[in-house]
Design goal:
This protein is an all-alpha fold. Helix 1 runs antiparallel to helix 2. The chain starts with 7 loop residues before the first helix and ends with a helix.
Length: 98
Amino acid sequence: MSERPRDPQGERFFGAGLMALGAIIAGLCGACTLAVAGDLAWSALRYPGGMGSLSILILPAVVGGLPTFAGVSLFLMGLRRYRGGRKPDARRIAKTFD
């Protein structure tokens, strides 16, 4: 059997969707993780014997860090699919930074 030709526009559309979904997940989870971790750190500094130490920050790092990592991964997978698997041209990058 012959392979069906790939649809570059469909690949780009799917990649853009993955990028949007990943950015939303990473942005919301990352912001919530920073807010909870900041609040816990502020409480630990304001009331020094109540929480023991700043080791309580491990909980938001794990609970919020895993979905943030998943969102970043989705974004990167979408970016790769959006670009069509090609690597950026080194000459074009060199012109950007010259």
